[in-house]
């Protein structure tokens, strides 16, 4: 059932939108030297307020209730690089107040918001239980088949079903098979595009690739009337994009560069994200269609003249074979929801401008030849892949990653699609939902 906007926990989601904007401006201001001194005092004051909240006698601070409040709001201390030092406090009974203040000082603003329940999703329990309900309802859905044109994908257990979400403040929740690894396939195309725009500039990218939905299957041999791929979210466009990224470097250097970017998008240390070489080889052995597509584009001069066909197809296929799970995918999607800043490291991984271009094209082209209907019914930027993954972005609020291998004729996960529809309906997430705009006026 759809929840009311004005009353109840969903209104918290919306009421926090203005706070997110304030948060952004605070981040921008913190790069200003003059402000820094003021901010330091503020942080100390906030750290003291926080200390007093958990101190009975004004001299010692109780650690356990402090940690419990952080966990209650959806923060995962054990695998959130920002909060690891608090995870390490587990088992410490109390700290001297000054010791506590110096430990929390740098994060005081964030911690204060967290313990007061003022992160972007204020009522995280409500969101968790609604998400769990939608997950359970969608578990019953049958239909679709594993993609089999990449033989390795046909061997995956079709009953796998997992979802994860991560908010722009790093609150996380997962259900089902969310730690099972799978290949990112076309869901990686949105991240490749964002990285590509930053690397070579959107003008150069769009000198070679269009920005219109194709209305055709994702690997259709079709170009627009300027002999360009319709957009970067389908195979033709993604192949051309692969040819443009660091073409002077060797294949392994190019892939190394891109994998490091994926690590950063997911908030992980370098060399965490890897390629599933078996699926990659399986696709390479059956890549006639993509080969035909790239030679067709070569004949139409859609690629830079010095492009190596061999390296391009290999780079493209390796990018499709990047191995993630729902946890990682949700953080990556949340990085897009957060203007390119990874929520669990606070690192700016891609620029806000590239995120804007990416979300725009995900909205219009992210779901292949189902993009129009998806935009109509769900109204959120999303990108799917034939492994059965869908990454969804709720701008300024959260990213989600859904995984269920059976896909429909368009190549979209059947359970994932229904999950998106219900998610948008229950939380009023459609970007053009009129109550959303009404609320903005308050
Ligand atoms: N839709 C997809 O996920 C397609 C990706 C797949 N690797 C291919 O090139 O066909």
Folded structure, characterized:
The protein has 442 residues and is of the alpha+beta class. The protein has two domains: 34-116, Recoverin, domain 1, CATH 1.10.238; 128-427, Beta-lactamase, CATH 3.40.710. Helices cover 50% and strands 8% of the residues. The strands form three sheets. It has a five-stranded antiparallel sheet. The chain has a two-stranded antiparallel sheet with strand order 1-2. The protein starts with 8 loop residues before the first helix and ends with a helix. Glutamine (GLN) binds at residues 185-186, 218-219, 235, 283, 290, 320, 385-386, 411. Homotetramer. Belongs to the glutaminase family. Keywords: Hydrolase. Its EC number is 3.5.1.2.
Give a quick set of tags describing it.
442 residues; alpha+beta; Recoverin, domain 1; Beta-lactamase; 5-stranded antiparallel beta sheet; two-stranded antiparallel ribbon; 21 helices; 8% strand; disordered N terminus; binds glutamine; hydrolase; glutaminase
